[in-house]
Amino acid sequence: xxxxxxxxxxxxxxxxxxxxxxxxxxxxxxxxxxxxxxxxxxxxxxxxxxxxxxxxxxxxxxxxxxxxxxxxxxxxxxxxxxxxxxxxxxxxxxxxxxxxxxxxxxxxxxxxxxxxxxxxxxxxxxxxxxxxxxxxxxxxxxxxxxxxxxxxxxxxxxxxxxxxxxxxxxxxxxxxxxxxxxxxxxxxxxxxxxxxxxxxxxxxxxxxxxxxxxxxxxxxxxxxxxxxxxxxxxxxxxxxxxxxxxx
Length: 247
Description:
Elements: E1 9-18, E2 21-31, E3 36-40, H1 47-54, E4 62-67, E5 70-71, H2 77-83, E6 85-87, H3 100-111, H4 115-120, H5 122-127, H6 143-155, E7 161-165, H7 173-190, E8 193-197, H8 201-207, E9 210-215, E10 218-223, H9 225-228, H10 232-246
Parallel strand pairs: 3-8, 3-9, 6-7, 7-8
Antiparallel strand pairs: 1-2, 1-4, 4-5, 9-10
Helix pairs in contact: 3-6, 6-7
């Protein structure tokens, strides 16, 4: 079921500074309802900080964040989450000493859901191999399953916008396909928009019709991946940086 109304995420002239450090400046983009947008760039480009500002974890230095016609700028994390903008994390993010089932129950309670919320994720729990592990302590799960549980926790809150911070990081090849499946569930079942920060270029090419490239805190390029990743300035700024990290 898609969320009602026009739930476009608008980021307008967003900037963030920590003292004398300008993390990023004047970033603007639009993420229409139900669309997927990739954000790439070398380490230190400001990608995670951008997610932190959009999600309300950090206040912006300048600029605005709008969801539909609602002002999200500077609102705290819990208020932004309640409005429908949810984020995931690079590392696993669950209630570590609680069981898998209790983690899901807490997320459902947070969102005001009920038994229907459990029914909505039955197939997903089977697909991600979490169904047989509902009674296991979440921090005892293999790393890949902990990451998928974190995504499921975001899903059950029925977000309008999902901000995924390196969802494939640390996953094995077979597990990375689960990120594709998760994004499909979010779009088809929730009508959710998805912003993906990721270093896995194959995943970005598969899932994102359009991408943004951040470099040194500025928006270097935007457009379809095939076009953007062929640009010399993007190759110099990003692809070269990745090769240096691997070397």
